[in-house]
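## retry 2 of 3
previous attempt timed out at serialization; input unchanged, resubmitting
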Amino acid sequence: MTTHFFGDTATLLGRSLRHITRSVDTIITTTIMPIAFMLLFVYVFGGAINTGSDSYVNYLLPGILLITIASGISYTAFRLFLDMKGGIFERFQSMPIARSSVLWAHVLTSLVANLISVVVVVLVALLMGFRSGAGVLAWLAVAGILILFTLALTWIAVIPGLTAKTADGASAFSYPLIFLPFISSAFVPTGSMPAPVRAFAENQPVTYIVNAVRNLFTEQPVGGDIWIALGWCLGILAVAYFFAMLTYRRKIS
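## retry succeeded, writing output
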């Protein structure tokens, strides 16, 4: 059964990845907005923002990476919506394949596409002056956090992809996720915010994830931020996976 699941997922993953390679503009589109934000904040607002950091792009990059991922997962919901409306799910049900492999193929495609987008954004940040003395283990820890964050948001994206009535509705859910980093420590220290906003910003998951990634990049002690960040990612992933699979079973029953 396990071999059956992995084989089916690999086959469907290949199908989804071929769709991505035929529309490279998808990845380009998902990187344009984060790069635009990075250019805007570094070259327009950066001089007016006091972060206590030698380089504002170093301070900014972790939040931009989360925005990149939040922007990219909207395409997962969109592609899933198109498959639902195109009747491909009904055709898959008539085949002897593991049912959950259909969703996992979309999720893993999202992971691959988003990792490519993240690499592109990091390369642009390097051109803008981003530098990090982090070692291999720190970079692997950053990659692990970003992968968990991507999986968590992608399983959230599965739900509107399965339930939306229109293509715009399938992808619009990502807008709040894209702007959540703006109410966090991603762009400015939370100490400069009004008390109610500060209370929210300091206790929402993006702040913990941003702080953990930033400290890893700058070789600073991560403290408890990394464990809270991992807890948020794993918690969101577990809840989103449960409701996504529940929605999927109801759709195909």
